[in-house]
UniProtKB/TrEMBL annotation:
Gene3D superfamilies assigned: 1.50.10.20, 6.20.120.20
Protein source organism: Staphylotrichum tortipilum
Keyword Isomerase annotated: yes
Family: Belongs to the terpene cyclase/mutase family.
Protein's UniProt name: Terpene cyclase/mutase family member
Single Gene Ontology BP annotation: triterpenoid biosynthetic process
Lineage, top ranks: Eukaryota, Fungi, Dikarya, Ascomycota, Pezizomycotina
Enzyme kind, highest EC tier: isomerase
Every Squalene cyclase C-terminal domain range: 389-719
PANTHER family the UniProt entry points to: LANOSTEROL SYNTHASE (PTHR11764:SF20), TERPENE CYCLASE/MUTASE FAMILY MEMBER (PTHR11764)
Enzyme nomenclature, EC number: 5.4.99.-
Length: 729
């Protein structure tokens, strides 16, 4: 029987069950590496009971008692902490689902399928459940992200995933999704990345994929558009894409693949004019249409260069160098890779070159599990291998802002968090830093963990602040000595851009004009690093805090860095008074950071026109009930847009923090917002999930579930410090 389900699932078809037994899932935290285990064996399940964190992630009842009702904001922080404390994982950090984007699970599942990796029945089952739960209720399709409208990108890829994990094509939900896909034009109307995956899978012909020449990697470094200058995520995706495009590599044909050729297209597969559809795309997916320049380049590459001038020795050299770069990434991340797109793509490249049995392929497959998460709706893929260092830093700061770091009640929790950050500091630069185009990272922290090991300016900063705060609190040990703190500072100081601002992983290596070459269609602001008020503020506040405690170390440079950074923040303010956010939604998020930057040099509502305009902008958006509620569309359009479902706790906390940082003199609006946050707190101390909080590349939203704890607690704590006598209730 040529039915590929055997190799995909190692189980006959009917074993794709309704639902797994949720009492059998456990999250294993191995020094900040997350993997979900399904304990089929009763004995094993008994020996390893579910923790509160497991149950919480899985949406199971925790059975926690009601806490005494908060009589003031500080009580509310304490109640919040006593809940949040239960979610701390054994290694000392806070983890969570990090979903939102709907193109990540397809990367993982297609990479498993084409590398003939067995997909256990409990994974397959929960992948099916997640995708069914997230199908758009009206049309049965999927969008770019969980809150987005149905697109070809989301629908073609997630439909494919469902088929690969064993769902029947005639399942009613599949029939509905397929009808929607066809009404949008079918797979020929998909954006570049989807066409690339379908070509790898052998469902589409490679001619439908716009050129991704690995030869670009051979360009000398001085060339203004050489790939080493691109934003790290796009160049790490371009790398494996270019290798497989060059080889026109395709998976072994299976029944499901043959069937998908019929299901995904409106046209008869044999008659499709592949090359003619390279630029076909549904308007809904075409968020960032390709420029005339890129279209011209693509045409020349496809019609002149490839057939006439593309020569074997150069192709070989380019492919070899691309693989070498992938190997360096293997070494630097122990085969984890930067994130959930490049990781699965690299896995396929290594498999295509070396077959199934090399160490690198096996290790990639093992590590792919670290991108997965199980929740009440099923199994999904996270945007990175977690949010470990980032959320842990904010948790510590929330306690600090409430003035509770010295309270012995929270010491064990905080000590564990400090131990985690100690363990996760990156101690060395990567090998061959210059050759693989990496940024200095010694002394840094990554967003997730040190295995991933990519320093980000604000992740280093938030972690460093948290370490300094705790280590300077009586009763906490000095786990990270001065030299290691200096290492972090030395690395941070490499992050300033000529304008004074900071970017994310690296200072920009080319200008925004590079967006002219953005081929991804579904994302904006992806080709290079930009300047971010969020990252800039984090670095400013970290350097300032450091300078307070070590006034001698590189003092003049720090002073100059901070001055220039805050001046840049001022120039980045929009005429309406707000700042545009790139990593959280949207003006509310970035305005919080910008006002914090201003406050760090003593500029507040009373003495700074920038701070005043920032406050007035936020106040003009406060709702009747005291809350704020910006909608994700603001990230796409660049205009503040209200969320139709009303005030959001996280958004409200951001706005309140901003106003308090700026020392806004009238407590009334702040009080109203604080009351809203307190009213939304549940009797057990938690807050419930509301609308999605984060964003990247303008168009794709991503969840930050721990923000509903850390930011409300920070806002409440700051209020309690600012207005110690105001009980609010
Ligand atoms: C992240 C997550 C964290 C985020 C902050 C630290 C919050 C930000 O201040 C700086 C940028 C950073 C590190 C960031 C960059 C882009 C990421 C890695 C993500 C949003 C998580 C997922 C996303 C990544 C690009 C997803 C894969 C998609 C591609 C387009 C390659």
């Amino acid at each position: 029987n040529a039915d590929d389900l055997d190799h995909a699932t190692k189980r006959p078809r009917p074993e794709l069950v309704d639902r797994t037994d949720y009492s059998r899932w456990r999250m294993r935290d191995d020094h900040g590496r997350h993997t979900w285990q399904y304990l089929e064996d009763d004995e094993a399940a008994k020996e390893w009971p579910q923790t509160y964190a497991d149950k919480y992630f899985l949406g199971q009842p925790l059975g926690l008692p009601d806490l005494p009702k908060a009589k003031n904001p500080l009580d509310a922080v304490r109640n919040g902490l006593s809940f949040f404390e239960k979610l701390q994982l054994p290694s000392g950090h806070w983890g969570c689902e990090y979903g939102g984007p709907m193109f990540l699970l397809p990367c993982v599942v297609i990479s498993w399928y084409v590398t003939k990796t067995p997909i256990p029945w409990y994974y397959a089952t929960e992948i099916k459940n997640y995708l069914f739960a997230r199908a758009h209720p009206d049309d049965g399709g999927w969008g770019l992200h969980i809150e987005g409208e149905t697109s070809v990108f989301g629908t073609v890829l997630n439909y494919t995933v469902l088929r690969l994990v064993g769902v029947d094509a005639d399942h009613p939900k599949m029939v509905k999704a397929r009808a929607t896909l066809h009404s949008l034009g079918g797979a020929t109307h998909a954006p570049h990345w989807a066409k690339w995956w379908l070509a790898v899978l052998g469902v589409a012909n490679w001619d439908i994929v716009n050129p991704v020449p690995p030869e670009l990697w051979l360009l000398p470094d001085w060339i203004p558009f050489a790939p080493w200058r691109w934003w790290i995520h796009i160049r790490q995706v371009f790398l494996p894409m270019s290798y497989l495009w060059s080889r026109r590599w395709q998976a072994e044909e299976t029944d499901t693949i043959r069937s998908l050729r019929k299901e995904l297209f409106v046209e008869d597969w044999k008659d499709i004019k592949w090359a003619a559809h390279r630029n076909t795309i549904h308007p809904r997916d075409n968020y960032h249409p390709k420029t005339w320049l890129l279209n011209l380049i693509n045409w020349l590459l496809a019609n002149i260069w490839k057939p006439i001038f593309r020569v074997k020795p150069v192709v070989d050299k380019a492919e070899a160098w691309a693989l070498k770069l992938i190997e360096m990434e293997n070494d630097n991340t122990d085969c984890l890779d930067l994130a959930t797109v490049s990781g699965p793509m690299n896995t396929v490249c290594l498999y295509a070159r070396e077959g199934p049995d090399t160490y690198a392929v096996r290790r990639h497959k093992e590590r792919s599990h670290e991108f997965l998460w199980v929740k009440d709706e099923g199994l999904l893929a996270n945007g990175t291998n977690g949010v470990q260092c980032w959320d842990t830093a904010f948790a510590i700061q929330a306690v600090m802002d409430a003035g509770l770091t010295e309270d012995p009640r929270w010491r064990p929790m905080l000590l564990k968090a400090l131990e985690f950050l100690d363990d996760q500091q990156i101690r060395e630069n990567v090998k061959d830093q210059g050759i693989c185009y990496r940024q200095q990272r010694k002394g840094a922290w990554a967003f997730s963990n040190k295995d991933q090991g990519y320093a980000v300016s604000d992740c280093v900063s938030e972690a460093l602040k948290s370490v300094i705060i705790l280590q300077k609190t009586p009763g906490f040990p000095t786990l990270i000595d001065d030299q290691r703190i200096f290492d972090a500072i030395d690395t941070l100081l490499t992050y300033q851009n000529p304008s004074g601002s900071c970017s994310s992983y690296e200072p920009p290596r080319a200008g925004p004009w590079m967006e002219m070459l953005n081929a991804a269609e579904v994302f904006g602001r992806i080709m290079v690093e930009y300047e971010y008020p969020e990252c800039t503020t984090a670095v400013v506040t970290a350097l300032s805090l450091f300078h307070k405690h070590w006034p001698e170390h590189r003092a003049a440079e720090i002073q100059r860095f901070v001055d220039r950074a805050v001046s840049w923040i001022k120039t980045n303010q929009r005429p309406h008074g707000g700042w545009y956010g790139s990593w959280g939604i949207c003006f509310t998020y970035a305005t919080m950071f910008a006002l914090e930057s201003l406050a760090s040099i003593g500029e507040t509502y009373e003495n700074s026109s920038h701070a005043r305009r920032g406050c007035e902008f936020l106040l003009s958006k406060q709702r009747e009930d005291g809350g704020w509620s910006e909608h994700y569309k603001a990230c796409e359009t660049g205009e503040y847009i209200e969320h139709p479902s009303g005030s959001q706790v996280v958004m409200t906390a951001w706005a309140l923090i901003a106003l308090m940082k700026a020392d806004y003199p009238d407590p009334e609006p702040i009080r109203k917002g604080i009351k809203l946050i307190m009213d939304r707190q549940q009797p057990n101390g938690e807050w419930l999930q509301e609308a999605i909080e984060g964003v990247f590349n303008k168009s794709c939203m991503i969840s930050y579930p721990n923000y509903k704890f850390t930011f409300p607690m920070k806002a409440l704590g700051m209020f309690a410090k600012h207005y110690p006598d105001d009980t609010v209730v």
